[in-house]
Predict the 3D structure of the following.
Amino acid sequence: MAALGWLTPRRRSATARSVLAGEASAEAARKTSQEFPVHGDERAAAFFDLDNTVMQGAALFHFGRGLYKRKFFQRRELARFAWQQAWFRLAGVEDPEHMQDAHDSALSIVKGHRVSELMTIGEEIYDEYMADRIWPGTRALAQAHLDAGQKVWLVTAAPVETATIIARRLGLTGALGTVAESVDGVYTGKLVGEPLHGPAKAEAVRALAAAEGLDLSRCAAYSDSHNDIPMLSLVGHPYAINPDTKLRRYAREREWRLRDYRTGRKAAKVGIPAAAGVGALAGGTAAAVALSRRRR
């Protein structure tokens, strides 16, 4: 895939593979995004991490469970997926080695299958294993941005096809996700770049923002993981949702807003970021209203 040439000067430790993964994800997201029905600030948008931010658990592991049900692989691989999912749910932290292992497993499973086949199956798996795991609080925040006339994108290490299905079901604009290589509509078992994780997420957001003409200082981002600090630091309005210990500490030090839906306890709302223009003010106000309603 040719370089897209969208990236602006950056301060980060991303590798060339991170940049490639980010650019590929941004290109895929723009091809599959839906028409946005509400007119508003065209230079503001919101970016939501998926796993443990929008949805309980990890999308890739739910997807693996659905593939096992359809006999794509054997019990041994299912046990590995189950262990990784259980560890993620209990620890509440993304482990890079687990994520890499999960991606390697998924790639070997889908190799030789048609993209269209997996998209159809993905729709079924969403209904079976994902639909009832969406956090209502985070969903309300995303809707607040939509109501303010802003586009809303998922940003996840899950396959872009799976992420696109989830985004469409939730009524969001589109999704940035890991791009698996395909030739003539058939998966090759390889990735374009690397999994969309850590710095690669920031590269994807940066690439999409440049292509869409977004002002990142007027945008918002939401995540549960310290691995997403590069993405959160890109925008003018970062939010820590269901944060792990490292992200909670980092967010408090920088007076970022926090919200935790895991125990039902009220959010620790830290600081009120100054709006950089009408669009950011609208988005920040809408999100604040959603938070206020949840507290009542």
